[in-house]
């Protein structure tokens, strides 16, 4: 059984997917980029500013599913430039305490809408 999670507090999907899917006790959250959930406009900022909005959007989706960052067990971070790792990692780290999730961070040749950061998460109910 699957439950689709979509909230107006995070950007609407820009393709044939949902913000998140709850299945088998896990919440699979689609990759989030720095889109303003109200206007749908892309944030024009540096990688750290993008990461801050991405984490806010992820938090809104987790909340809509009745979860929080403490439930996240796995993350994937995509960066346009690995030189932004430290700045993005600092923002990312502020949203987790105690038991940090498993993670990989990779540099991607291109990301949706030309953003610098995209992050997806998996959380356990």
UniProtKB/TrEMBL annotation:
GO terms for cellular component: cytosol. InterPro entries: RidA (IPR006056), RutC-like_sf (IPR035959), YjgF/YER057c/UK114 (IPR006175). Pfam families: Ribonuc_L-PSP (PF01042). Signal peptide: none annotated. Transmembrane segments: none annotated. GO terms for molecular function: deaminase activity. It comes from the Bacteria. Belongs to the RutC family. This is 2-iminobutanoate/2-iminopropanoate deaminase.
């Amino acid at each position: 059984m699957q439950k689709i999670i979509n909230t107006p507090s995070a950007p609407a999907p820009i393709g044939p997917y949902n913000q998140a899917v709850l299945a088998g006790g896990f919440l699979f959250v689609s990759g989030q980029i720095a889109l303003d959930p109200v206007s749908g406009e892309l944030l024009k900022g540096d990688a750290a500013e993008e990461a801050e909005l991405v984490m806010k959007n992820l938090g809104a989706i987790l909340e809509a599913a009745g979860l929080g960052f403490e439930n996240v067990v796995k993350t994937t971070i995509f960066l346009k430039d690995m030189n932004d790792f430290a700045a993005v990692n600092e923002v990312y780290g502020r949203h987790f305490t105690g038991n940090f999730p498993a993670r990989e961070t990779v540099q991607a040749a291109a990301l949706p809408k030309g953003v610098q950061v995209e992050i997806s998460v998996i959380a356990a109910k």
